[in-house]
């Protein structure tokens, strides 16, 4: 039996039992942020395996890039619309599985000969924000096996890219993705049980305080926590209220302000790109290039020549 990762007792643990363990090398990557843990596992060889796990205190969302010859999965207390407790799986590419806290699961798989992999997000709502804790405790979330949700898939792929990337990403960006994923999952779940989230924006004074703080600290790596604390909100509630008020997420708003400052420095100074990237808070030339082109449609060098 191979333990995919070592975890404290209150975290999810997945156990894999390969038919020929000596021939299998699972390539495993993991990162943690406040309230959630992201993992990516790649299995380059098509070895049959069994798996099982239990989640005490955490919820679990998996994104599959798997094609199976045979296999099925079972979650304690779950049956599909056809009354089946064990759910078969074959072409699982682009599908997701959600397992609520407190549910054990098990299954087996015989993969096709291809580059199979899966990514998982385990999270604790009470550490990600009071509103998320209330949302996940306000209804009884039900498991979902091998479901399709294009919005969740898109965010999961962005987080997977963060994990694989050799370039650092800001805490604000990663936390925003994590919160967006959990919020999207909750929206998916509450639609199923007929619940609804209350929505509202920031007050005018709150907007002014946040805007002033962002501009005063534009050159540093801000986090959602410090922005939310300015208006005495949780990260979850703040992210949602900010988007209602400004029409975009906190990370995009901050990137837009950094872009505008970079524009002014490119036009009015001869500073090198590396210095500008650090001064406006992007941290690297690669990040400056990506965000600048996203907003302007041209690279910083091209913009400097044009102005």
How would you describe this structure to a colleague?
By secondary structure, the chain is an alpha+beta fold. The protein folds into two domains: 176 residues, Sandwich (Jelly Rolls); 52 residues, Homeodomain-like (Arc Repressor Mutant, subunit A, Orthogonal Bundle). The strands form two sheets. The chain has a six-stranded antiparallel β-sheet with strand order 1-2-5-10-7-8, with no helix packed on it. Strand 3 and strand 4 form a beta hairpin.
Identify the notable features of this structure and list them briefly:
307 residues, Arc Repressor Mutant, subunit A, alpha+beta, six-stranded antiparallel β-sheet, globular, Jelly Rolls, 2 domains
């Amino acid at each position: 039996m191979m333990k995919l990762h070592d975890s404290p007792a209150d975290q999810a643990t997945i156990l894999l039992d390969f038919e020929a363990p000596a021939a299998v090398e699972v390539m495993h990557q993991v990162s943690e942020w406040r309230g959630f843990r992201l993992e990516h596992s790649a299995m380059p060889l098509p070895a049959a395996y069994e798996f099982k796990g239990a989640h005490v205190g955490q919820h679990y969302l998996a994104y599959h890039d798997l094609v199976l010859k045979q296999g099925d999965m079972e979650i304690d207390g779950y049956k599909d619309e056809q009354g089946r407790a064990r759910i078969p799986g074959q072409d699982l590419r682009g599908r997701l599985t959600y397992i609520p806290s407190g549910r054990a699961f098990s299954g087996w798989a015989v993969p096709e000969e291809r580059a199979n992999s899966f990514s998982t997000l385990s999270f604790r709502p009470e550490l990600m924000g009071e509103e998320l804790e209330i949302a996940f405790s306000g209804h009884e979330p039900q498991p979902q096996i091998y479901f399709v949700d294009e919005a969740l898939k898109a965010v999961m792929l962005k987080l997977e890219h963060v994990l694989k990337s050799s370039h650092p990403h800001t805490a604000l960006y990663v936390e925003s993705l994590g919160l967006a994923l959990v919020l999207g999952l909750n929206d998916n779940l509450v639609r199923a049980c007929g619940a609804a989230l209350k929505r509202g924006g920031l007050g005018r004074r709150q907007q002014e305080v946040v805007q002033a703080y962002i501009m005063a600290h534009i050159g540093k790596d801000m986090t959602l926590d410090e922005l939310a604390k300015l208006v005495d909100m949780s990260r979850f509630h703040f992210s949602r209220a900010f988007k209602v008020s400004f029409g975009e997420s906190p990370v995009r708003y901050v990137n837009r302000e950094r872009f505008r400052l970079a524009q002014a420095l490119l036009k009015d100074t001869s500073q090198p790109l590396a210095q500008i990237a650090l001064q406006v808070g992007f941290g690297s030339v690669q990040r400056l290039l990506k965000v600048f082109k996203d907003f302007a449609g041209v690279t910083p060098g091209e913009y400097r020549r044009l102005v």
